[in-house]
Structure formats: C-alpha cells, structure tokens
Amino acid sequence: RVIAEIIANLLENACKYTEENAQIGLFLCNSGIIVFDNGKKIDPEEAEKIFGKGYRGFASKNKDGTGVGLFLARKLARKIGGDLYLLKNEQDNQIYNEIENLQNSNIFYLKLPIEQLHK
User: Fold this and answer.
1) Which H, E and C letters describe 41-105, residue by residue?
2) What confidence tens digit (pLDDT) does each residue in 10-63 have?
3) How many Å apart are CA 4 and CA 110, to the nearest integer?
4) pTM for this one?
5) Which among 104, 81, 102, 68 is positioned nearest to 32, based on CA atoms?
6) What are the angstrom distances between the C-alpha of 57 and each of 47, 64, 72, 110, 111?
7) Hey, which residues does 27 pair with through a beta bridge?
C-alpha cells in the first residue's frame, strides 16, 4: 500500500506538471520503480529542493498544490527502507543502462528494499 501511494503521487505530479501530450510512464527495474515524463526537464538546481517540505518548484508556480507530495513520498520510501530521488545525469550507471531510451525525461526513481520485501 505504501508503494502504491508513492507511485500515485509521482504519476499525479507527472500529469499535473507536464505539457499536454507529454509521454508519462512506469518502468520496473531490478531494484525499484521508475516514473518518467518527457515534459520540461526539472532544473538541476531544484533536483533536491523539490523534496523539501513546502517547496514548490518553478513548474508549479501557476498550479494548485501544497509542496508536500514529494516530501511525503520520500519519507514513506525511506520508512520502508528504500529511497526516492530524481535521477541526474548518469547518477547510477546500472539504472541508466536499463533505461537508456528515457534519458531525455524527468526520471523519478523509487529504490525499493527488494530483499526485505521478499521476506
């Protein structure tokens, strides 16, 4: 259920903040779940700030919201032993090898504690 809440938040944000007709999707990899969109790239300076409580990025200026969605999603991910972050240029080569065709997208990576989930 926690994972579903995180994914729902990421998909809602992708729908809300990307341009009309942008591609949005999910990608399952060995160690987690990726939610991507090919809308306007999030500024690298905001890559960590967007997870701050109450922070609303540049793309959200004319949209409704509270700025707590990504904060709570990351908190939930860490609570189950995982993490949530926006991938930056080749931050994790293994992941980028799996998703090479998505590199021009905003890519949120929900890293899951796979070993713990299968116990």
Assistant:
1) CCCHHHCCHHHCCCCCCHHHCCCCCCCCHHHHHHHHHHHCCCEEEECCCCCCHHHHHHCHHHCCC
2) 999 888 888 888 889 898 887 889 898 888 888 888 889 999 998 877 766 777
3) 11
4) 0.78
5) 81
6) 9, 12, 16, 20, 23
7) 34
